[in-house]
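Technical note accompanying the year-one report. For the benefit of new consortium partners, we illustrate the data format agreed upon in the data management plan: each record pairs a sequence with a structure-token string. No post-processing was applied to the example shown here.
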Amino acid sequence: MSEASHHHKPNYFWSLLTLRCPRCRRGDMFTYPNPYGKLSLSHILNMHETCPVCHQKFELEPGFWYGTGYVSYALLIVFSVFTFFAWWIVIGISADDNRVLYWLLFNGGIIALLQPWFMRFSRVVYLNFFVKYNENYEHEEGKTFDY
């Protein structure tokens, strides 16, 4: 990696969408880049113990990832509201036919297809609550919860 490309600040939203470490925004959080490679929970959620670039520990405490259930729920509600309004604008909503039922089926199908990515994305979003970007990650220690 060249010196010039190493010192630019990676984009926050791009690092979220590409499932990168929140501390350096460069390292992959997950062992397998493709969540759809093998549809098993161990494949989808298998993470590096630490970031390959900045060595930030990902599981900050035992049971840390339980909070991602709430994040995932909130993300799916936002996604569903978005698809509802997109459906309303493009197709329309009416009490006289089954368009709401069709939206429910469409939304449920899209959520089922995107679930492996949403499971990973919720982990990245959740970790971003606790670990912030650090330009000096090479010279400073990563965040952990010490008891």
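Partners are asked to follow this layout when depositing records. The chain is about 50% helix and 0% strand.
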